[in-house]
Amino acid sequence: MNDYSLTAKKHLSKDQDRNFDKVLQILKDKGATQMECAYALIKGAGLSLGEADNIVVNSPVWIENKELNDDIRKSWNKSDELDT
What we know:
Layout: H1 5-14, H2 20-29, H3 34-45, H4 49-57, H5 66-83
Helix pairs in contact: 1-2, 1-3, 3-4
């Protein structure tokens, strides 16, 4: 697994506004998956899992996966409701 966190940390340290979409695009262009992007934000920017997940899932960089992600999460929530 490539450690994209170093790339994230490098680009975020240069960017005063912490432009996560810009960094996510760089990571995606380097071949990172959504999960690797979230990990890179956790390790490279010190974000929590929830924060990193929210940024990645809602980023325009990964818009092509948004509907699928939402559908999967809805099915998980329905499954959790059935289990209780």
